[in-house]
Amino acid sequence: NDNPRILAIETSCDETAASVVEGGKNVISTVVASQMDIHRRFGGVVPEVASRHHVENMTTVIEETLVSADMDYTDLDAVAVTAGPGLVGALLVGVNTAKALAYAHNLPLLPIHHIAGHIHAAELVADMQYPALALVVSGGHTSLIYLPEEGAYETIGETRDDAVGEAYDKVARTLKLPYPGGPEIDRLAAEGEVTIDFPRAWLESGSYDFSFSGLKSSVLNAVHNTQQRGDTVIPENVAASFQASVVDVLVERAQRAVSEYEVKQLIVTGGVAANRTLREAMKNSFPSGGNVDLIIPPLSLCTDNAAMIGAAANIAWKKGEWAGYDLNGEPGLAL
Ligand code: KG4
Ligand code: ZN
After folding, report:
1. Rounded to 10 degrees, what is the CA torsion of 162, 166, 171, 175?
2. What EC number(s) has UniProt assigned to this enzyme (predicted)?
3. 29 is in which domain, residue-wise?
4. pLDDT at position 202 over 80
5. Whether residue 182 sits in one domain with residue 84
6. Residues 145 and 250 reside in one and the same domain
């Protein structure tokens, strides 16, 4: 069957999500229950609280997904689930639900890597061409991944400290903005000007790795020093200046990797790829009709969702990568 209908489940962080995807391309239904309002009170994701809410919401989210797809389990060919990386307690809810459903309905169980999910979100809006390069920028990850062919992943660069989304969230906290900070900084930056020359963490030449903790500290110091001088901090300008530094680094790394690896496509994905300034900068650097085809999935496919897991699951299906009932959630799962 080249067009399997896969029920995909995602619970690696704070979104309880399910989706039915056909042939890795056609999203028949997709439901995301966000816990954002709950975690906002704590200023970030509290793992225990996340697990508990996944347990509460999981069944309803799956039911809603099937109802809106107008399907029952006899219409499905497989169950796929994010097996890692992520919060262990959160992952376990999805993994155990998927195992139970696969067993009860006699369906193959497909374990999916969360980052492969983010990458193959591209599949839902375009045809992927190889070799490809993916820049995955999220709350937990900042990685440059080379894909020589379908299903093969080579991480050529990653963050040595904070993930870029984490830096957004921490800078937002410094500016007393609510969690998650990314969208808040995005909004503020649009109203501000680049007035502070924050460092661009270039690391040693030739490296594709990233480092954002120095930038985060610079922002903190700049805000602190401004207050010490008795001057007013202009959050819009701090946000714009911070974002300018982040975007510069991300674009430079992508440009260098695209030319060194001579890829056909560049995929920019993950929660931070929802950022308007980053999207614009990438579009300007890789204009359509150029030698590389840029794919940035729409916002709802960039942040955590299960449709992207369904897209990646199609590749696991083709390769026959089924898991046994001993499948476990692995917080540090390698790609
Ligand atoms: O991919 P994602 O939903 O979850 C993870 O797998 O981490 O990414 C969440 C991250 C958060 O750090 C959030 O602040 C950031 O993505 N984010 C943004 C924007 N929207 C979400 N960062 C910058 N600009 C945005 N518009
Ligand atoms: Zn994610």
Report:
1. -150
2. 2.3.1.234
3. 5-120+302-319
4. no
5. no
6. yes
Same domain as 44, residue 147: no
* 287 in the same domain as 138: yes
Kindly state the greatest CA–CA separation across the chain.
Answer: 68
pLDDT band per the 50, 70, 90 thresholds, residue 141: very high
Amino acid 206: pLDDT:
85
Give the model's pLDDT for residue 227.
93
Tell me, yes or no, whether 162 and 78 share the same domain: no
Is the CB of residue 21 less than 8 Å from the CB of residue 79? no
Atom number of ligand 1 nearest to Cα 114: 6
Q: Which ligand has the nearest atom to the CA of 169? A: 1
Report how far ligand 2's centroid is from the alpha carbon of 139 (Å). 7
ipTM score for this prediction: 0.98
Per-residue pLDDT, averaged over 263-277, amounts to 97
Do 113 and 136 belong to one domain?
no
CB-based contact 40:179 (threshold 8 Å): yes
Question: Based on the domain organization, do 291 and 312 belong to the same domain?
Answer: no
- Global pTM reads 0.95
Same domain? For 292 and 159 the reply is yes
Q: Which of 112, 120, 159, 303 for mutating ligand 1's site (highest number of atoms within 8 Å of CB)?
A: 303
Q: How many domains does the chain have?
A: 2
Ligand 1 pocket, residues with Cβ under 6 angstroms = 13, 138-140, 165, 168-169, 180-183, 186, 270-272, 274-275, 303-304
Question: What are 24-62's pLDDT values in tens digits?
Answer: 999 999 999 887 888 787 777 888 888 898 999 999 999
Cα(130)–Cα(148) distance, integer angstroms:
6
Please state, in angstroms and rounded to a whole number, the distance separating the CA atoms of residues 274 and 187: 12
Residue 196 located in a structural domain = yes
Q: What is the pLDDT of residues 148-163, one digit of tens each?
A: 999 999 999 999 999 9
